[in-house]
């Protein structure tokens, strides 16, 4: 073995010795650190595998990252005219809030008027002790259901499925067909009405079914026999129906030609005081979730027999005149339908447009401010515009409507007229001439798409206005009339999307405009 080999071995041994010495020193240095770290972890670290905040964040991934909740997205189109929109403010529930309520039912004390504040409370107390759970009151449950319905309606879009076993609203006849359809389905899913049982016929729980005021009796009958929307438990009701008939009061309470309205006024006021004393619901909302329905001309006057009834309650009226305190956002315009036999037999149907030789038709008595102007300009003066005070002998009123392209519907003493629905039944495009009238279901239907609206000042230009409508546009309006008239048909029993359900839907929308909370 040479000197170089000996030197190499010595160098290797020296290196190994140095390495061993270094490792020993490093080991002696690390041992105290490990001991100290273990001591610190045991005394300072979490005493349980997961903290409350950790478990909350892992099990509740729905919680938003910031205290404030974003408002629900607005729909692309507005379902209603702006003045009739439900109160869907920025404080409306979003999907995240619904998820929180689902996961922590009755833990979060929701205030539907101020959802943002409630959300802030949830975020700030999440790391503290959980709140004691409490049972929501019946009113809180109802308001939460309505808030979810508002959010669902607001989120309706063009991508919604369109399958429906009976009818799918489509076309320009609707302000927003998708939103209307979603709202209608939400109504079918949860809307419940309590009908007060107090009162005896004929003033209460009764009404005419075979006259110009037939909607009073038809609606009362359907509500009395309905099992889908009516509830016998008032604690589960979203709305409350006051089932009196103004028509019956005029007949049995009012003294003819006395001009003394006080008997009707006292009857209405006494009934409201009765249900207000017996139940908590009227006083709880000051009447805001209660409604009446009347087709008599005196319906609006009767509604002000009690101040809260006229100013707060939902009034479903045929005489929907804005100059007489009708408020489209709160009140409901319903159609005036003259059912002479109590059914639609022989009323619905008519020939095609090519078999309608008459341009426009009207026949009726002279009363109110509008009809004298119409008769002055057009009575027996034009073969295309057939206007009569009295029809010639042997001439059928219904046949004249079926043979006309346009049916003139002027106001009488009051703004409503049964001719509007008669025109729709006959397939005749209505021509509305009035002032201050809100047409039925204007929260859903775009009347200008299937009717002609003429001001009283334009009556002399009536023929010019109608002849300016091209044949193609008239055909569009005619087809739309055939589609929307299902919403004005009276059925017994009621059918989906008919006049009974459209009235209910309008009341449903007004109920969505109201939020009630316990004080």
TrEMBL record:
<feature type="transmembrane region" description="Helical">
    <location>
        <begin position="26"/>
        <end position="45"/>
    </location>
</feature>
<keyword id="KW-0472">Membrane</keyword>
<feature type="region of interest" description="Disordered">
    <location>
        <begin position="54"/>
        <end position="81"/>
    </location>
</feature>
<keyword id="KW-0812">Transmembrane</keyword>
<keyword id="KW-0333">Golgi apparatus</keyword>
<feature type="domain" description="Exostosin GT47">
    <location>
        <begin position="188"/>
        <end position="468"/>
    </location>
</feature>
<dbReference type="InterPro" id="IPR004263">
    <property type="entry name" value="Exostosin"/>
</dbReference>
<keyword id="KW-0325">Glycoprotein</keyword>
<comment type="similarity">
    <text>Belongs to the glycosyltransferase 47 family.</text>
</comment>
<feature type="compositionally biased region" description="Pro residues">
    <location>
        <begin position="64"/>
        <end position="81"/>
    </location>
</feature>
<feature type="compositionally biased region" description="Low complexity">
    <location>
        <begin position="54"/>
        <end position="63"/>
    </location>
</feature>
<dbReference type="GO" id="GO:0000139">
    <property type="term" value="C:Golgi membrane"/>
</dbReference>
<keyword id="KW-0808">Transferase</keyword>
<keyword id="KW-0328">Glycosyltransferase</keyword>
<protein>
    <recommendedName>
        <fullName>Exostosin GT47 domain-containing protein</fullName>
    </recommendedName>
</protein>
<dbReference type="GO" id="GO:0016757">
    <property type="term" value="F:glycosyltransferase activity"/>
</dbReference>
<keyword id="KW-0735">Signal-anchor</keyword>
<dbReference type="InterPro" id="IPR040911">
    <property type="entry name" value="Exostosin_GT47"/>
</dbReference>
<dbReference type="Pfam" id="PF03016">
    <property type="entry name" value="Exostosin_GT47"/>
</dbReference>
<keyword id="KW-1133">Transmembrane helix</keyword>
């Amino acid at each position: 073995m040479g000197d170089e080999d000996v030197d190499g071995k010595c160098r290797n041994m020296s290196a190994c010795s140095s390495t061993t010495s270094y490792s020993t020193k490093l080991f002696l240095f690390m041992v105290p650190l490990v001991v100290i770290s273990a001591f610190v972890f045991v005394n300072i670290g979490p005493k349980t595998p997961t903290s409350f905040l950790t478990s909350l964040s892992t099990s509740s991934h729905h919680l938003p990252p910031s205290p404030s909740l974003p408002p629900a997205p607005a729909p692309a189109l507005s379902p209603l005219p702006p003045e009739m929109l439900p109160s869907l403010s920025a404080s409306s529930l979003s999907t995240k809030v619904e998820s929180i309520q689902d996961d922590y039912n009755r833990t979060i004390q929701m205030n539907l008027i101020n959802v943002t504040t409630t959300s802030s409370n949830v975020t700030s107390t999440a790391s503290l002790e959980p709140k004691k759970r409490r049972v929501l009151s019946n009113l809180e449950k109802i308001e939460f259901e309505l808030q979810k319905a508002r959010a669902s309606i607001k989120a309706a879009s063009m991508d919604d499925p369109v399958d429906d076993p009976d009818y799918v609203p489509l076309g320009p006849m609707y302000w927003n067909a998708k939103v209307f359809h979603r709202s209608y389905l939400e109504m079918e899913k949860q809307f419940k009405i309590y009908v007060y049982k107090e009162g005896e016929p004929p003033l209460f729980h009764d009404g005419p079914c075979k006259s110009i005021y037939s909607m009073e009796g038809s609606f009362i009958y359907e509500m009395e026999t309905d099992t889908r929307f009516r509830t016998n438990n008032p604690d589960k009701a979203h709305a409350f129906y006051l089932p009196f008939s103004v028509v019956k009061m005029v007949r049995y309470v009012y003294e003819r030609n006395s001009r003394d309205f006080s008997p009707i006024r006292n009857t209405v006021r006494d009934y409201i005081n009765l249900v207000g004393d017996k139940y908590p619901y009227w006083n709880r909302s000051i009447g805001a979730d209660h409604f009446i329905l009347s087709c008599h001309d005196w319906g609006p006057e009767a509604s002000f027999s009690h101040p809260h009834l006229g100013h707060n309650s939902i009034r479903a009226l045929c005489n929907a005149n804005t100059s007489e305190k009708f408020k489209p956002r709160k009140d409901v315009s319903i159609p005036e339908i003259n059912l002479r036999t109590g059914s639609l037999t022989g009323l619905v149907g008519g020939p095609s447009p090519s078999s309608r030789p008459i341009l426009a038709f009207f026949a009726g008595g002279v009363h109110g401010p509008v009809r004298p102007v119409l008769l002055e300009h057009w009575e027996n003066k034009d073969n295309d515009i057939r206007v009569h005070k009295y029809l010639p002998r042997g001439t059928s009123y219904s046949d004249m409507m079926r043979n006309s392209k346009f049916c003139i519907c002027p106001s009488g003493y009051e703004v409503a007229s049964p001719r509007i629905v008669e025109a729709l039944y006959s397939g005749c495009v209505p021509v509305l001439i009035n002032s201050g009238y809100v047409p039925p279901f204007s929260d859903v239907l775009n009347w200008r798409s299937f009717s002609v609206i003429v001001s009283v000042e334009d009556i002399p230009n009536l023929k010019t206005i109608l002849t300016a409508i091209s044949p193609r546009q008239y055909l569009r309006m005619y087809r739309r009339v055939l589609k929307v008239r299902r919403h004005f048909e009276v059925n017994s029993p009621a059918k989906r999307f008919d006049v009974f359900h459209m009235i209910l839907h309008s009341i449903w929308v007004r109920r969505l405009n109201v939020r009630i909370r316990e004080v």
